[in-house]
Structure formats: structure tokens, C-alpha cells
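Page 47, continued from p. 46.
Same chain as before, 98 aa.
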Amino acid sequence: MIPYEEALPLQRKIAAEVNAVGPQQTLASLLQKIGDAKRRLRDYPVAIRAHREELTIRRRLLARDPNNLAARRNVSSSLDYLGNSLRESKDLAGARTA
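Result:
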């Protein structure tokens, strides 16, 4: 288990208990790190799952504040990470639509 995975249940609990932007951003960042680590290890299903969950959180945060430049950049970055994982897993159709 990579340290990020050990931190995941703890961060999920914090994010669930506190309806604030900070814990949600931290959870999304943690999922991005897990996804990136798993992609580098070629564990594509786990990487894709982590990036999809990250993207869902980032989109939810953007919906709360649509004019927030950082939130828009985070959604764009999440789409990039997801697309890279899909492409490397040979899901080119998924990568194009991510």
C-alpha cells in the first residue's frame, strides 16, 4: 500500500464531516496523487477510478464557484490526468471523450 492509499480513508472521513472547500480540495489532490502513482505502476483500472473520482469532486467544487479560476484550472488538470491514464491503458476512445 502506498502512503497515499493509507491516507485516503482518513481524508474521506474528514471531507464527509466538513462541508468546506479545503477538505474537498485535499481529497481531490490525494486522489490525483494516487491516480498518478497507479498509472506509473501501470495499474490502470485503479488509476482511472481515482482520476474519475477526483474529477467528480473538482467539478462539484467548480459548480459552487463557477468564476473561480483555480477551480476551472483544477477541472482541466483532472481531465488531462484522466485522459493520460485512459490513453496509456489503450482506451483511446475514452481518452478522446474524457
